[in-house]
Write a structure and sequence with these properties.
By secondary structure, the chain is α/β, with parallel strands linked by helices. It is about 35% helix and about 20% strand.
């Protein structure tokens, strides 16, 4: 474990940085306070912490869906087209086909429609043959794949994911974890992944930021050292188990100090 750092190792110029960010909602609840961290280009960053600690709020701030009450978020990307967002629930339009759901961000962002973009996004998540299916015909894991394809269709530089696999069974979750890592390597994008699972964060991330209970701020930072590409063998390795134990103990300490 190391003290929270404010610069990612993957680039001298981070993709984005939180500088003294605080967020207080109109009802008086302070979700974040003195939040400082940066996001390196091309890294897989996990935000780990207990429910209600402000992880999802930080993600929405990063996406520009809401603004900070204090501090600033500095971004070094071209604009909103460069951000894809995957929510906890697939939030698919039930009356629309898979292809129509994936096409939606192109329409909302006034990007010239290209059928090849939709087809490419579906191919990335292994749903080429389901473009004309409706959400009711898909399993939970397949619906989440559609949601990921929808986020990827604009070819974002930054992919934000808010506990996307939390509601899935373990087998589907493990499979999608592997598929997500493969996509991250293939697309060379930056991923910020919110989770409250130590085991998922250690398996996926190159770096983990641990949040304190509300109001959230960075309590600790971990660099995850693992062989690449990660696979099922890493999940059952002594190294994986040791890192999970270390981070679990640190999380218990953070909770005890709250």
């Amino acid at each position: 474990m190391s003290a929270p750092a404010h610069a990612a190792a993957s680039s001298d110029k981070p993709l984005a940085a939180f500088k003294g960010v605080g967020k207080t909602y109109p009802n008086g609840v302070t979700a974040l306070e003195h939040l400082d961290f940066s996001i390196g280009r091309g890294e897989f960053l996990a935000l780990l912490g207990p429910s209600g600690c402000g992880k999802s709020t930080a993600l929405r701030l990063l996406a520009g869906l809401t603004g900070p009450t204090k501090g600033e978020i500095v971004r070094h990307s071209a604009g909103s087209h460069d951000v894809g967002f995957v929510f906890q629930e697939p939030t698919l339009m039930p009356w629309a086909t898979v292809a129509q759901n994936v096409r939606l961000p192109l329409r909302l962002k006034n990007i010239e429609y290209q059928e090849s973009r939709v087809q490419e996004a579906l191919a990335l998540v292994g749903l080429d043959d389901f473009r004309d299916a409706y959400p009711r015909e898909l399993s939970g894991g397949m619906k989440m794949r559609v949601s990921i394809a929808r986020a990827l269709v604009t070819k974002p530089q930054l992919l934000l994911m808010d506990e996307p696999f939390a509601a899935l069974d373990e087998i589907s979750r493990f499979r999608l974890n592997d598929d997500l890592l493969a996509l991250w390597r293939q697309l060379n994008c930056t991923v910020v992944f919110v989770t409250h699972s130590v085991f998922e964060s250690v398996y996926l991330a190159s770096r983990i930021l641990m949040f304190t209970p509300r109001p959230g701020r960075v309590a600790a930072e971990f660099e995850i050292k693992a062989p690449e590409p990660r696979d099922g063998q890493f999940r059952t390795s002594p190294e994986y188990g040791a890192q999970c134990r270390e981070i679990s103990a640190a999380l218990a300490n953070v909770m005890a100090d709250a």
